[in-house]
Amino acid sequence: MTQLSILVGSQNPIKINAAKQVFSNYFPGKTIHCEGLHAPSLVPEQPLGEEQTRLGAQNRVEYLMQHHNADYYCAMEGGAHQFSYGPATFAYVVIANSQHTSVNRSSNLPLPQVIFDALIAGEELGPVMDKTFNTTNIKQKGGAIGLLTNNLATRESTYTQALTLAMAPFIHTELFNNQ
């Protein structure tokens, strides 16, 4: 097989680019065909809490697997939570193929309380950040992560790291099959 087909449960170019980069890194001898498709999360537009966020990513992958054929399926879902130490945003990623599913979580980005309060009130993080920083459609660019880290980290770099780590069970199947 010289080509790998990867389906991403989103049409956001940030998510598609992150998936393509990760699969290209792991499979340098293969042609990577990476496509983003609409896949419903079945959770609110702005997931709150780790469970809701993880479920959103899992639902997207399950939808892709039920309706499309590919070598790998992946999804990324951004969420936020009020932890005991303060509010933060993070993402869950899910990668699956016909044999395995891997779930992983990104690192946290601390959020200002005023921004988290807007999320609790029903707003979505991207538009809140756009209003706060006078940007447009930041969620398809560097995201809140880029804005709050002066672009030393970005939404794409966070997804790339989480997806890279989530690939471990696919790369070392012999170790993970014994669980």
From TrEMBL:
It is an enzyme of class 3 (hydrolase). It holds the Pfam family NTPase_I-T. Keywords: Hydrolase, Magnesium, Manganese, Metal-binding, Nucleotide metabolism, Nucleotide-binding. One of its GO terms (molecular function) is metal ion binding. Its EC number is 3.6.1.73. Its cofactor is Mn(2+); Mg(2+). Residues 9-171 form the Non-canonical purine NTP phosphatase/PRRC1 domain. Phosphatase that hydrolyzes non-canonical purine nucleotides such as XTP and ITP to their respective diphosphate derivatives. Probably excludes non-canonical purines from DNA/RNA precursor pool, thus preventing their incorporation into DNA/RNA and avoiding chromosomal lesions. PANTHER family: NON-CANONICAL PURINE NTP PHOSPHATASE_PRRC1 DOMAIN-CONTAINING PROTEIN (PTHR34699:SF2), PTHR34699. Belongs to the YjjX NTPase family. Homodimer. NCBIfam families: inosine/xanthosine triphosphatase (TIGR00258), PRK05074.1 (NF003459). This is Inosine/xanthosine triphosphatase. It comes from Pseudoalteromonas aurantia. The lineage of its organism: Bacteria, Pseudomonadati, Pseudomonadota, Gammaproteobacteria, Alteromonadales.
